[in-house]
Amino acid sequence: EKATFEEILSMVKDLKDIIINNLDEYIILINGLNIKLLKGLETEISGDVTIDIFPPAAGG
């Protein structure tokens, strides 16, 4: 069964609210591919996948 990234994110409401409100600040990878290069929140996910969510960071 397929689900979109947004549907999966909805399972963790607090996380969804934080990420959706600041989506451009996060790097989100599905099996190593940035969702911005795929279909964004509508990226379909099924089977055994790895989702990496990297919060905003600054450094120098």
From TrEMBL:
Highest taxon of the lineage: Archaea
Pfam families according to UniProt: ThiS (PF02597)
Protein name: Molybdopterin synthase sulfur carrier subunit
